Amino acid sequence: MPTGKIIKAISGFYYVQDGEQIVQCRGRGVFRNRNITPLVGDFVHYKADNLSEGTILGIDERKNELVRPPIANIDQAILVFSSIEPNFSPGLLDRFLVQVEAKEITPLICISKIDLLEVQALRELEQYAAIYQQIGYVVVMLSSTTTAGIDALLPHLDGKVSVLAGQSGVGKSSLLNALDSSLDLETAEISTHLGRGRHTTRHVELLSIADGFIADTPGFSSLDFEGVEAESLGACFLEIAFHAQDCKFRGCLHLKEPACAVKQAVEAGNIEQFRYQNYLQFLEEIKSRKPRY
User: Fold this and answer.
1) Concatenated DSSP letters of 32-72
2) What's the CATH code, domain 230-288?
3) The dihedral formed by the CA atoms of 11, 20, 63 and 275, expressed in degrees to the nearest 10
4) What is the pLDDT of residue 217?
5) How far apart, in Å, are the Cα atoms of 24 and each of 27, 57, 203, 207?
6) Cβ contacts of residue 68 below 8 Å, gap of 6+?
7) Are residues 27 and 59 in contact, defined by beta-carbon separation less than 8 angstroms?
8) What is the pLDDT of residue 239?
9) Cis, bond preceding 69 (omega within 30 deg of 0)
10) Which CATH architecture does the domain made up of 3-61 adopt?
11) What is the pLDDT of residue 165?
12) How far is the C-alpha of 163 from the C-alpha of 249, rounded, in Å?
């Protein structure tokens, strides 16, 4: 039975790449009865009489998946944040980082439009970049006028399935166009009334770029922490997880517990205060959310 990877899904049709050919498929009726939905990124088994009439018969086990956007088997998330319009937000970046760390997806941080910043603002942004690099993240600074940042990004794409994510208007489609000019993806100007870009991406599709795949995904501006529990939140902050190994009590939430190594690290300056405050804010959101039945 032939096998392939779903690279695009539109209106109930799944486009399965098998070597050099792409086969248009539908899912088996039994999938619907079992509430199973094939996802972009799935490795599937299919049968087909021709390139436009195939049927997906089975789906291999996924190593991970996201609900929004609906995609599976992701190696890394390229988190795109603009330095201006909309302004860079460490709080929002940390929300994205928690989401991808919780799914055990490797994050890569891209900060765009740095050429539009005044000197002082650029220095402040570089300080944030240095902090995240010290934590252990790869940070790539992108200009809207040169390809220097693009050249630094390319080696991280080879052989990987990457999700491109970030607020609307930060330049995700522009980044993809810079990576591959043949894509000619639609981009949107920033709305001066709302301060954000209009959505230009309407479906999830894996694009073949730099010997890997990148998913261009619909933009969104807020993230909840569904699937992240209070006890596991600390593991989504790399430096908190590192110091938590030395806490006196297992399951320490780093609030008011005695002999908390994380709070000691914050006081000593080994964990940035803004990161710890974001952790506390997210923890409160998780603890106060209403249970779902």
Assistant:
1) HHTT----BT-EEEEEEEETTEEEEEEEPPPS-EETTTTEE
2) 1.10.40.50
3) -80
4) 61
5) 10, 13, 16, 16
6) 218, 220
7) no
8) 98
9) yes
10) Beta Barrel (2.40)
11) 81
12) 37
Phi, psi of 264 (to 5 degrees): -65, -40
Nearest to 244 by CA among 234, 257, 229: 234
Q: What are the domain boundaries of the chain?
A: 3-61, 66-216, 230-288
Fill in the amino acid letter for 50.
Answer: N
Give yes or no for a contact between 22 and 39, defined as CB atoms under 8 angstroms apart. Answer: no
What is the DSSP secondary structure assignment for residue 272, as one 8-state letter? -
30: left (phi over 0), alpha (psi -120 to 50) or beta: alpha
Q: Retrieve residue 24's tokens.
A: 């248009």
CA dihedral 144, 157, 7, 107 (to 10 degrees): -80
Mean pLDDT by runs of 10 across the 293 residues of the chain is 94 94 93 90 96 95 86 93 91 93 93 92 96 97 79 91 81 80 58 38 79 73 76 97 96 96 98 98 92 63
Q: What is the pLDDT of residue 176?
A: 83
Unique residue bearing structure tokens 């209403």: 290
State the Cα–Cα distance between residues 183 and 9, nearest whole angstrom: 18
CATH of domain 66-216: 3.40.50.300
